[in-house]
Automatic annotation (TrEMBL):
Family: Belongs to the LysR transcriptional regulatory family.
Chaperone in keyword set: no
Upper taxonomic lineage: Bacteria, Pseudomonadati, Pseudomonadota, Betaproteobacteria, Burkholderiales
Designated name of the protein: LysR family transcriptional regulator
Molecular function via GO: DNA-binding transcription factor activity; transcription cis-regulatory region binding
Domain of life of the source: Bacteria
Signal sequence segment: none
Record-linked Pfam families: HTH_1 (PF00126), LysR_substrate (PF03466)
Length: 299
């Protein structure tokens, strides 16, 4: 029995399918299957029930899975004790929300590549819920999204926050000299869809101030939301750094009568059963570099 065989068994059992597990280990599906078969041969028993389309754990596989987890965790602890100046290799897949991808993600990628030049970085940007789904299914090594996660299989560490400012284009205000929250009953609120983490702070704001917008327009892209607001098709909020730039240009105006939204907390998320030291290194880099005031090409 080898550590690579245990890794193949564990990730094949806990990822969505063998292909995801193989990608996570940076090997082919055939190599993954071979390692599992070698482990089964050494045990003299099958760990998976295989069909043409899927594979499920046998009773023995179910019984041995937590023991494999503990052995792999012990190996991770061994590597941590070996020293902190480790250079990692293989592939590192991580997911972020769109706002992170448009601001400080390039700095994070650069820092990872400098610290671990043999590590191939593969970022994925999407709505928070989709990113978290991919993390839980084993397709990603870690995620940086609004949190914390409510999923029992995902651990969250707070690393920073994003702030937002209410804005509108002058034409959206019509003859009003100043817009107040109550005016939302006669206006269109432009925002992200319910699968976005930012909706949590919006719902709290609406509830606290007892506001019901007359109409909402949801779009799954911050860039598109900014464009819709700039065109005067509704009011909404943007990352504060973006709002400052657009207001300075005269394309938008702030809405000082609108009480500010609470900051949106961002977390570094990982599967609880993934104790690799590499993830501690990634979390520390992310906590140091998080910056939603970083410039974006959209403005």
């Amino acid at each position: 029995m080898t550590l690579k065989q245990l890794e193949a068994f564990y990730w094949a059992a806990t990822c969505r399918n063998f292909a995801v597990a193989a990608n996570r280990l940076s090997i082919s599906v055939s190599s993954l299957s071979k390692r599992i078969a070698e482990l089964e041969a050494s045990l003299g028993a099958a760990l998976f029930n295989r069909t043409a389309r899927s594979a499920s754990l046998t009773p023995l596989g179910e019984h041995l899975l937590p023991h494999a987890r503990e052995l792999l965790r012990g190996a991770d602890q061994f590597m941590q004790q070996a020293g902190t100046q480790l250079s990692y290799s293989g592939r590192c897949r991580f997911g972020v929300g769109e706002l992170t991808s448009l601001t400080w993600m390039p700095s994070l990628i650069e820092a990872i590549q400098q610290a671990h030049p043999d590590l191939v970085v593969e970022p994925f940007a999407g709505v928070g819920q989709l990113v978290e789904d991919a993390l839980e299914e084993g397709e990603l090594d870690f995620a940086i999204i609004a949190g914390p996660s409510s999923r029992p299989t995902v651990a969250s560490s707070r690393i920073g926050q994003a702030e937002f400012t209410w804005v509108a284009a002058p034409r959206a205000l019509g003859k009003r000299r100043a817009a107040r929250p109550a005016h939302l009953a006669d206006m269109t609120l432009v925002t992200l869809p319910h699968s976005s983490g930012v909706i949590h702070i919006l719902d709290e704001w609406l509830t606290t101030h007892r506001i019901a917008p007359g109409r909402s327009m949801a779009c799954n892209s911050w860039g598109a939301v900014a464009g819709i607001i700039r065109h005067g098709l509704g009011v909404g909020f943007l990352p504060s750094a973006w709002a400052q730039v657009l207001c300075a240009r005269g394309e938008l105006v702030p809405l000082p009568e609108f009480p500010p939204l609470d900051p949106l907390q961002y977390t570094f998320q990982r599967r609880r059963d993934d104790t690799r030291p590499m993830l501690d290194s990634m979390r520390d880099l992310a906590a140091r570099l998080i910056d939603f005031h970083a410039p974006t090409c959209l403005l």
